[in-house]
Amino acid sequence: MLTRKKTIVWCFIVLVICGWMFVLGVLVGRGTAPVNFDVKKLKNDIVSELTAAIEKEKEEKKAQIDVSMNTPVHSDKQDLGFYEDLKSTKELPEHINIKEVPKPEAVSLPAPVPVESSVKEPEPEKTGEKVIAKESVPAKTEEKIVAKEPPLPKKTTGPVFTIQLASGRDEKYADKMVGELIKKGYQAYRSSGEIKGKGIWHRVRVGEFGDRAGAGTILNKLKKDKFNGIIVTR
Predict the structure, then answer these.
(1) DSSP 8-state symbol, 193
(2) What kind and span of H or E run contains 166?
(3) Is the pLDDT of residue 32 over 50?
(4) What's the rounded Cα separation, in Å, for the pair 71 and 98?
């Protein structure tokens, strides 16, 4: 499309050419022109050049629009779905063994070495108190909090429902999300399953429910805390 500025420029050029043709016509009519011009042919050539220039500019504009429309748009959203594929996978329960912190051993103070001196020091008063060496307090060790997947109830009369919030290959991300949910008071845990051709996937789930209505109540509460999920069966 022609802009306003380009339209004004083309109009000015056409006016100049028309004025020049008028002057040439007057000179030719009077017979004072130094060279005889074919005015009709010259006019047709100028019009053809102007038409070709305008068509070329229109084609360039159209090509630019087509390129911009064909440019693919990339999405940055990470797919944490595949819920339907994960429902049929065999779950691998997590066995977490937390090593016991060794009890600190009592530190015994070395016996004082007597120093010989010629001057007798006064004997200290005897007291019934005993000196007890302070035990060294070990530094607190940080333990990674990962909730173990709860076992299925022994007696079930129907399907067991649970809420699935996320699923992906990143185990650290799943553990981090479980920790955040536990801090907010939810019974969250990580469940791992192997998908054929895709490897092991880690799912973040919350609770176990005997009916869908109970799971729906907790799901609404999770949505208020900005956690989106779906209700699935174990």
Answers:
(1) E
(2) strand 161-168
(3) yes
(4) 53
